[in-house]
Amino acid sequence: MTTTYEITNKFDVEGDAQSLLYAPPATPLRFRKTTRYLFDYEGDATALDAFVHEALVDRISQEAHQDKAPIWNGYAFILDYGMKGGALDLEKEAILSYYRTLKAPAFTLSKLLLKTRIYVFGEGADSALFVRDIVNPAIQNSEVINA
User: Fold this and answer.
1) Which of 12, 58, 95, 130 is 20 to 30 A from residue 123's alpha carbon, by CA?
2) Residue-range domain boundaries for the chain
3) Which residues of 4-23 are buried (b: 16+ CB within 10 A; e: fewer)?
4) pLDDT of 55-102, one tens digit each?
5) H helix intervals, 1-142
6) Would you state the torsion angle of the CA atoms of residues 115, 46, 69, 86, taken in this order, to the nearest 10 degrees?
7) Percent helix, strand, coil in the chain (nearest 5)?
8) Is residue 22 a contact partner of residue 133, using CB atoms and an 8 Å limit?
9) Is 13 helix (H, G, I), strand (E, B) or coil?
10) How many C-beta neighbours within 10 Å does residue 145 have?
């Protein structure tokens, strides 16, 4: 079974997308950033949910959204990117290490993917600029989801 959690910061607001690029975009653009965790697992979904909320979510400043659907509407595109399979992902390794210390987790984790998700808002947004300036193709893969 596969499930996705998207973690957002409660206090974040849309930022100026120029801060993500090497050169300013042709038109003013805004963005919001989240982290997505994609779990392939077998077993108790409630136990996985408890694990996510214990290990990955700061209860004071973050919220977890369990769904594949985009959290926000009105975006020009979404850029999802993460480490390739053979590249070292320290956050992923830390999560898996913590999972391995659990005495009886009630679920078996068979695969974990971490993705950074950037929602870009505004007219005239060119996803190619963001992919070029943000994604390192030697160690990362990416996907663009258009509105």
Assistant:
1) 12
2) 2-146
3) ebbbbeeeeeeeebeebbee
4) 999 999 999 999 888 999 999 999 999 999 889 999 999 999 999 999
5) 45-55, 90-101, 127-134
6) 20
7) 25, 40, 35
8) yes
9) coil
10) 13
